[in-house]
Specification:
With about 190 residues, the protein is α/β, with parallel strands linked by helices. It has helices at about 10-20, 50-60, 75-80, 90-95, 100-110; strands spanning about 1-5, 25-30, 40-45, 65, 85, 115-120, 130-135, 145-150, 165, 180, 185-190. The longest helix has 10 residues, at about 100-110.
Length: about 190
């Protein structure tokens, strides 16, 4: 199989290294010429946010996946229409890319999550009691696009972008769990 990965970072490298026992070809697309995957895959330097670049990269692949969520989901949707398998699919990627859609998904599916308020612009009144967390709707990752507002004085630091305002909760421990499901419905958990 020809497997395309949008993003050539360390997660892509780990994906490729764990799949070396299979007889597949791995292709990666990343803006950095020295991305961790550049020497263990068929590497293309390019912008994974650019529609045409992603579309051209995905053509001729059996499967296209991501190792970073900040990619062009519209191009992935077009690849799906053209019969190329995209995992996760473009709609899931769109949800992952937007904190507001994530929170609404959690609420609709009764997934426990802190109380939240959606704020589309800086003119909206925040009704969440202090302290709270502001998460920008798009573009945030690894702590970027996230800030804690503890006092009234901190209101001057509020971002003007669409955001999720979320109750600040005590966190004892943070865990990362990935649950993968194949087409047969079999699942596997990775901690």
């Amino acid at each position: 199989m020809k497997i395309g990965i949008l993003g050539g970072g360390q997660l892509g490298r780990m994906l490729i290294q764990s799949a070396l026992k299979y007889d597949d070809e791995f292709y990666t697309l990343d803006p950095a010429s020295d991305a961790p995957c550049h020497n263990i895959s068929y590497f293309t330097q390019g912008n994974f946010n650019d529609y045409e670049t992603v579309l051209n990269f995905g053509k001729g692949k059996d499967v296209v996946t991501i190792e970073i969520e900040h990619v062009n989901a519209d191009a992935l949707a077009e690849l799906e229409k053209q019969g190329i398998k995209v995992v996760p699919n473009a709609n899931i990627i769109r949800t992952i890319q937007q904190k507001i859609l994530q929170k609404e998904f959690y609420k609709a599916h009764d997934i426990p999550s802190p109380e939240f308020q959606v704020v589309w612009n800086s003119d909206e009144k925040i009704i969440m009691p202090l302290p709270f967390v502001q998460k920008m709707n798009t573009g945030g990752y690894d702590g970027k696009g996230v800030q804690v507002i503890r006092t009234e004085a901190d209101f001057q630091n509020l971002w003007k972008e669409a955001s999720v305002i979320e109750s600040l909760v005590d966190i004892d421990k943070e865990l990362s769990v990935i649950v993968a499901r194949n087409e047969k419905g079999e699942t596997n958990t990775f901690l």
